[in-house]
Write a structure and sequence with these properties.
Layout (H helix, E strand, L loop, with lengths): L2 E2 L11 E5 L2 E6 L13 H13 L6 E6 L3 E3 L4 H9 L8 H11 L5 E5 L2 E3 L1 H7 L3 E5 L3 E3 L2 H4 L5 H11 L1 H10 L3 E2 H6 L5 E3 L4 H13 L3 H16 L4 H11 L3 H11 L7
Parallel strand pairs: 3-4, 4-6, 5-7, 6-8, 7-9, 8-11
Antiparallel strand pairs: 1-2, 2-3, 9-10
Helix pairs in contact: 1-3, 3-4, 6-7, 10-11
């Protein structure tokens, strides 16, 4: 049964959570402002939703998307300007960086459903997801160099590890907009589809992920992220691999393979 956050508990701008048969969907819900993320309500709300999702053992996959014609216009520039004018010594990321890093570290697999354009900090928010499926009319734009902003290091690191140094330089240093085919070519998009096929493609991938062994996926996701950051805990990765060989998951997986049926994890 589908469960959704109570309408009385949220206003029209608060990210919305829907849960349906093992899948959580978070929808950025400020379409009049292209789902721009505000420091006071959005960041804390998203962190609480991430905690809630990770604490629910029935959930197998998270889909992150936006309402309206854009995925997100990114972090509120007024907040960055205010911090700068007040002489705050924090890095440009601060609370936003904490939120995006938390998304990247979620145990369950994540899909970004890019329903439209993705701009500024939202490009990093999408990169923090494991997969990005976007419409063929999408575009992306990282304006840091045009704004005089040195982006926070973990965000730059995600660009480099996901897209390579050359593409990261092109996007950060030129501050030029690129379209969906180019986003696909450089690896920003996992898949590009027409708008009418977006939900079908997201559903297909979410169903595949939800059907795989959750503990094994959680461990491999962590290992992959650590390798991408150049900070692999080898002992922990070895321990997870050994534990998987004695798990109920591998017993069910091998049994299902022999019986030519889908596994039930």
């Amino acid at each position: 049964m589908m469960r959704q956050s109570s309408p009385d508990a949220v206003d029209a701008t608060t990210p919305l959570l829907t849960i349906d048969v093992g899948r959580a969907t978070i929808r950025l819900n400020r379409p009049r402002h292209l789902n721009r993320l505000q420091p006071d309500d959005h960041l804390d709300a998203l962190l609480k939703l991430f905690d809630r999702i990770e604490a629910d053992p029935t959930l197998r996959v998270l889909v992150l998307t936006g309402t309206g014609r854009a995925f997100s216009a990114g972090y509120d520039l007024g907040s960055i300007s205010e911090r700068a004018s007040n002489g705050h010594e924090q890095t440009a990321g601060s609370a936003f960086e904490v939120m995006v890093n938390r998304l990247e570290d979620l145990a369950l697999p994540t899909i970004c459903r890019l329903n439209g354009g993705v701009y500024g900090g939202a490009t990093d928010l999408a990169l923090a997801c494991d997969f990005r499926i976007g419409v063929d009319t999408a575009e992306m734009f990282m304006p840091a160099a045009r704004l005089g902003l040195h982006y926070y290091k973990s965000g730059i690191g995600r660009y480099v590890s996901r897209l390579g140094a050359d593409n990261a330089k092109k996007l950060f240093l030129t501050a030029q907009k690129i379209d969906a085919p180019e986003m696909l070519r450089i690896g920003y998009l996992t898949a590009m589809v027409p708008l009418e096929a977006l939900d079908e493609e997201v559903d297909r991938l979410a169903t595949v992920l939800a059907g795989n062994a959750p503990i094994a996926m959680r461990g491999m996701k962590r290992t992959i992220n650590e390798i991408a950051r150049g900070r692999l805990d080898e002992a922990a990765a070895d321990r997870r691999a050994v534990e998987s060989m004695h798990s109920t998951e591998i017993q069910e997986g091998i049994r299902a393979f022999a019986e030519k049926r889908p596994p039930k994890f």
